[in-house]
Amino acid sequence: MINFKTLAAATATAALFATGAMAANPQVGGADMFENKNIVENAVNSADHTTLVAAVKAAGLVDTLASEGPFTVFAPVNDAFAALPAGTVDTLLKPENKDMLTKVLTAHVVAGKWSAADIAAKARASSDGFYHFNAVSGDALSAQVKGNNVYIIDESGNASRVTIADVNQSNGVIHVVNSVLVPK
């Protein structure tokens, strides 16, 4: 017997992500992203993620994010870092603040490979409309679907919109986001 409620939800979820932003081989920051390359190998080519790449290098996380994984990375664009209070990025990039930088970056990483459709389905299925999960940093994150957008919400209640979903990598998936998730 067909469960029409489940079928309708699955159809809506598929329609939500059947956009140009989720092409088979999407471009991010003007660069092709390839499923046979790892997170680091693809990220270094994105003009929109130079700040993130510099931060990953400064935190010593290159080898981790190039490892087998799988990881789901919510990757803030350069404009997201620029929107932080003046001096924040420069302060985080100082060697003496490596632990703090690592905490911020790992608040954007989740163990496993989670597609945007999977995240959206879990949020829709929950009683409160939020999917609750933990980042590698240990910080609590939530996901919510509003209209055709998926939002990732940090512990402080700041919402970051997924602007490009499901950029598949050999060791996981990247979802480009428009703001930095700030751990408590």
UniProtKB/TrEMBL annotation:
<keyword id="KW-0732">Signal</keyword>
<feature type="domain" description="FAS1">
    <location>
        <begin position="36"/>
        <end position="181"/>
    </location>
</feature>
<dbReference type="GO" id="GO:0005615">
    <property type="term" value="C:extracellular space"/>
</dbReference>
<dbReference type="InterPro" id="IPR050904">
    <property type="entry name" value="Adhesion/Biosynth-related"/>
</dbReference>
<dbReference type="InterPro" id="IPR000782">
    <property type="entry name" value="FAS1_domain"/>
</dbReference>
<feature type="signal peptide">
    <location>
        <begin position="1"/>
        <end position="23"/>
    </location>
</feature>
<dbReference type="InterPro" id="IPR036378">
    <property type="entry name" value="FAS1_dom_sf"/>
</dbReference>
<dbReference type="Pfam" id="PF02469">
    <property type="entry name" value="Fasciclin"/>
</dbReference>
<protein>
    <submittedName>
        <fullName>Uncaracterized surface protein containing fasciclin (FAS1) repeats</fullName>
    </submittedName>
</protein>
